Amino acid sequence: MNSIVLAFNAVFPLLAFMSIGYFLAYIKLFKKSTADGMNALVFKVFLPLSIIQSIYNADLKNAFDVKLAVFAAVSSILAYIIISLIINAREKDKTIAPVMIQGIHKANYNLLAIPIIQSFFGNDIGMAAVLMVVTTPIVNICSTLAFESARASSQNEGEGSRPKMDAGSIWKLVKKILLNPMVSSALIGLLLNISGIKIPTLIMNSVVNKLAAMSTPAAMLALGCGFNFKQMKKWIRHLAIVASGKLLIMPVISVTAAILLGIRGANLIAVLLFSGAPAAVNSYSTAVSMGGNEELAGEIVAVTSLLSVFTLFGFLSILGTMGYL
Asked: What is the pLDDT of residues 16-26, one digit of tens each?
């Protein structure tokens, strides 16, 4: 019973904040332009500070788990390959296929990992925060590859040529990854932790901690504001495929493999989240900038975020009851 209560405490705030955001938008107190600005603050200020704070405070000497890092990297790459093969075989529209691939593969791990794991283990999150350094570059590379491959395939269709990436494209991709706020903040946190540089307590407690605490509430409010249930009917088939793959199939396979490898506790929740968390909020902006179907991308984020409240509650309750957490 205790594990069920902990699971409820972990996911209830997500549903509450999304519901409040939707209600505020319904009464026209929360506009889309405001939500867009809030999202920018979350992913450029609040969330990076939360990542820095978590890694800065982590006991990396005792928490670092090579097995988990390797597992996360390998499983993420394999998942991308399998998802791409399946979706590309089923979906011929080159503006829709990469959006679906990204929707299943790119999870909202960076936003949800810290608050959910803290609900179970307090500030003892260790490797779960460091894992952002491993997963963020991989999912961003895979996301870019999905869109670039679809674009090149569409342009070269019928010519028998294969998509190519020149040195300039590769360098742009590397720069984009390094400048990603999630990656750069994780690297800053690692540098501060390893070097032993101390941030003044006044700054950490009065500024950094409070701004970091705003990341999840602000992101969920903005997400709720963007819900549009009328448009979901148009994409019901695509949404069903992405939601089942993202929220059920992926986490079942990944978590089962992790358990067999002996991964437990906070690290197992990390596995659950990098495989079964909802589609990343920035999936929409990625689709817009790379020529994907932006309407479907937005609906994927909304639907998976809403349904994940229930699927994550189920997974956390089961894993806790079975003694794996």
From this structure: 999 999 999 99
Taking 80 as the threshold, does the pLDDT of residue 273 lie above it? yes
The count of other CB atoms within 10 Å of the CB of residue 274 is 30
Position 161 scores a pLDDT of 47
Backbone angles phi, psi at 107, to 5 degrees: -95, 160
Indicate the Cα dihedral angle 121, 124, 126, 128, nearest 10°. 20
Query: How far apart, in whole angstroms, are the C-alpha atoms of residue 49 and residue 215?
Result: 9
Domain, as residue range, for 197 = 2-321
Q: Name residue 127's amino acid.
A: M
Amino acid at 297: A
Is pLDDT at 92 greater than 60 in this prediction?
yes
CA dihedral 154, 158, 160, 163 (to 10 degrees): -10
Dihedral over Cα of 106, 110, 116, 118: its sign: positive
297-to-196, 291, 302 alpha-carbon distances in Å: 41, 11, 9
Q: Does residue 278 carry a pLDDT above 80?
A: yes
What are 57's two structure tokens? 């405070």
Q: What is the CATH number of the domain that holds 154?
A: 1.20.1530
Q: Which two tokens stand for residue 205?
A: 């407690």
CB contact at 8 A, 151 and 290: yes
Q: Cβ atoms within 10 A of the Cβ of 141, count?
A: 17
Type of residue at 323: G
Domain count, the chain: 1
pLDDT of 270: 95
